[in-house]
Amino acid sequence: MDHHSTIKAMLTPIPLPRAPEAAATLLSDTLAGLAEGGPVPREAAVGAFRRHLARIQSYVQHAFEHEQITGLQAARLLAALVDGVIGALFEHTTTNSDLEPVENLSIAATGGYGRGVLAPFSDIDLLFLTAEDPTPETLRVVEYMLYFLWDLGLKVGHATRSISDCLTEGAKDTTIRTALLDARFLAGNEVLFGDFHRRFRAACKEAGAAEYIAAKQAERSVRHRRYGDSPFVVEPNVKEGRGGLRDLQTLYWIARYVFDTQTMGELADLGGILTQQEARHGRRAWEFLWTVRFHLHYVAGRAEERLTFDLQPVIGARMGYTRHGRQDGVERFMRHYFLTAREIARLTRILEPAILRSALGPPAIEAETDAALLSAGFVLAEGKLLPISGRDFDAEPIQMLRILQIARDRGLELHPLAIRSFIQNERRAVALRGDPKAAAIFMDLLCGKEPDRHRPGSPHPDGARWLGILNETGFFGRYLPDWARIVGQMQFDTYHIFTVDEHTIEAVRVLNKLERGELAEIAPIASELIDHVQSRRALYLAMLLHDIAKGRGGDHSEIGAEVALEVGPALGLTDEETETVSWLVLHHLLLSGTAFKRDIDDPKTILDLADTIQSPERLRLLLILTVADMRAVSSKVWNGWKATLLRELYSRVAEVLAGGLATAERDVRVARAKQAVASLLSDWTDQEIESYTSLGYAGYWLSFDPETHARHARLIRDSEHRQSPLTVDTQPLPARAVTEVTVYCADHAGLFSQISGAIAVAGASIVDARIHTMNNGMALDTFWIQDTSGGTFDSPHRLARLSVLIEQALSGRLKLATEIGRVSKVLLGRRMQAIHVPPRVVIDNHASNTHTVLEVNGRDRPGLLHDVTAAISEQGLQIASAHVTTYGVRAVDVFYVKDIFGLKIENERKLGQIKEALLQALASAEDPASPVVLPAVRTLRKAATG
């Protein structure tokens, strides 16, 4: 058979069950054709094997990508085809080389390959098994085969052990024992492998299952902590993450250790442990994850196991997920993934305790179970709560809530069999809708007991713990239908690290921590205020419902507020509490949106906010809700700078609501600011103080505290004394997680753009800025910057370089566009480019009485502020203040501007020109993701076609 005929035969569709045998025959025929009556030269043999390997990999990929087979079928087919390669190599090694045949050698597959499944770029794990210590001849055969496989470009994990070594090492190391558990005969002495298998199984039985199961559970816990304890992390690891393939494999290992099952499919046949529906869900999850994994490997061209943002839309599209209604295809795909991961977590909760019971016997019911517990319908088994026979969850659905309440009140854990019963009876939660008793218990679980921090032993609220159980078992989605709509729902951005349901539970967990005083240093105001709120139940329910309407289209705050009006009464809240919940859901983004996007030194900002909030109690609730919501998004989202802005905003609104000094009385506040700084400049003459206090306009005096004013005064006096054209002062503020950069120089058009460009080149990001032109024609611009990780930009050499870069930018010696381009190439990766951020410009002439407010939304990147502010300057506008916020890869920059005459911009034509200029500046930020390259796939196809 010539070369092209071989390829054609390999690529011609053949019945899948016969494909491995057909492939092995093709390889044997090719090697026989090369022999010509003598040994096949090694180089020729390597070439033949390499071509054959490329053909079988291309064959599997073609069948998979043309939807002739699923991912699991492809994994099994690829493993079977590689079996033929290993078998042919062993035959070639022992018959067509200079090595002598060996009788006491058996080659076995281990790891995933041992289970009969193989991903495109996975390692091939082999065990070279001998009866006794390997002879020199045996070691030469093993060495020849390994070098041959490496020359083929394969990643091979290997071990050479005698049967005794296997038993000894397996007894000492659980990882080795698991690898041996997966061992599957490939080639060589089959009787020897059979002897090993019998002795190994006997050793496992003698050791007992308890120690092995405990070790695998501990190993799983460590893995979950490393890859995310939640199945709902938005960039999940398909193999190692919670609810991934490894969790299913752990179930398989435990079942195989106890029952000697041979395939994953046999998990459905373990003596009726699983219902037919549960077994079907397990098989479906196994198939789905293997299909995702195959797509991952082929798209990435390597053994990639993480579903990153750049890969999610590609794989979703390959699997046929398209836009449906309001959901993008990638969001539909990821929701399916998360629901599958949850199904695996649930399957673990069901199957694992049942296997334990089979291996270790039924749980011992403890005789000391007290009468009150028995009367409530529960017993203690192994120190954990379990419903008694006759009062199980199917017969009394409300017991699912009561068992959690008792577990909380008595400090007990739920027995695994109770969790299993929870999952199997989740549908019975529907019967509890509208039941006042069930509603009262649910609200009690959500809110917990109000703690007394000053009384030792006071109960600690831990509603998030019980919500997590209710959510994972499926009860919550059945009990509250609106909740079911957000389970597993992701937002395709880099800001949120959890799905909507998991984020909400995390937000309740933050509330719990605030009440326990655990965040007093991180969020002192919220920690103090939470002890004084009167509407505690409303606060917790608002936290639970604040994102309940995400994914429905429209404003999720408005829709969520309507949902709250229905849910509140159903859960037993009063009309007043329900109205408060609805208001909080409607306005849950109000404080953060104002603090990070508006000038809180503008009196109208504070007066408008106070007019909306109206009540000190609502202000307290809103601040606590805002802090918990932000902390729950990600620990990186919350920092000292944002805490400072929220604290200042809260204090100013609280002052107005308390009937204190009105924000409109600017002259009084300015006079007080000047008096405060004068008291700090005690070593100055009256003339020097008068000279400084006459420089700034009202906006300047209302923008800083007295200590900062005093620092500015000294900076200005020193600059004038030295007749310096430029002064740059840097002040790290670790408590706020920012560095304050003050620039004092002659004012000119484009100054803000040049300074922000220099800051970008220095590798810092601007989080806020204040621009003040003094009445002497000098500019006093203040920037608050952070490093790329969101911390204080405080390294001495970097601060020194920053000062030099600012001087070079202002003198024109720094080519900003070129330098920013270099920084962008380093910082912008394909993973971030996958997130589409549509550019948007909003112009608001109502937010301020004195300025036009420009809100610019676009993809964040180095130099974005430079480009945007350059466009603003080119339009002849003066920037009074800038407020910079990032949400993952999305930047929201807000500028307070006036025209050259110091007035708001009212002309519609001019406003249109401004908007168009800003959109053009944003357009350069939309650097489209480069096409995904499949180098490995191209190589395989090239080899397959000669």
UniProtKB/TrEMBL annotation:
Is Magnesium one of the keywords? yes
Which BP terms in the Gene Ontology apply to this protein? Answer: regulation of nitrogen utilization
In what residue span(s) does the ACT domain sit?
Answer: 740-825, 853-932
> Which residue stretches belong to region Uridylyltransferase?
1-373
CDD domains associated with the record: ACT_ACR-UUR-like_2, ACT_UUR-like_1, HDc, NT_GlnE_GlnD_like
- Catalytic reaction list: [protein-PII]-uridylyl-L-tyrosine + H2O = [protein-PII]-L-tyrosine + UMP + H(+); [protein-PII]-L-tyrosine + UTP = [protein-PII]-uridylyl-L-tyrosine + diphosphate
| Keyword Nucleotidyltransferase among record annotations | yes
User: Sorted alphabetically, which keywords does the UniProt record give?
Assistant: Hydrolase, Magnesium, Multifunctional enzyme, Nucleotidyltransferase, Repeat, Transferase
Function as written in the Swiss-Prot or TrEMBL entry: Modifies, by uridylylation and deuridylylation, the PII regulatory proteins (GlnB and homologs), in response to the nitrogen status of the cell that GlnD senses through the glutamine level. Under low glutamine levels, catalyzes the conversion of the PII proteins and UTP to PII-UMP and PPi, while under higher glutamine levels, GlnD hydrolyzes PII-UMP to PII and UMP (deuridylylation). Thus, controls uridylylation state and activity of the PII proteins, and plays an important role in the regulation of nitrogen metabolism.
Family the entry assigns? Belongs to the GlnD family.
PANTHER family in the record: BIFUNCTIONAL URIDYLYLTRANSFERASE/URIDYLYL-REMOVING ENZYME, BIFUNCTIONAL URIDYLYLTRANSFERASE_URIDYLYL-REMOVING ENZYME
Q: Which HAMAP family match?
A: PII_uridylyl_transf
What domain comment accompanies this record? Has four distinct domains: an N-terminal nucleotidyltransferase (NT) domain responsible for UTase activity, a central HD domain that encodes UR activity, and two C-terminal ACT domains that seem to have a role in glutamine sensing.
The name on file for this protein is Bifunctional uridylyltransferase/uridylyl-removing enzyme
Q: Which organism is it from?
A: Rhodopila globiformis
Gene encoding the protein: glnD
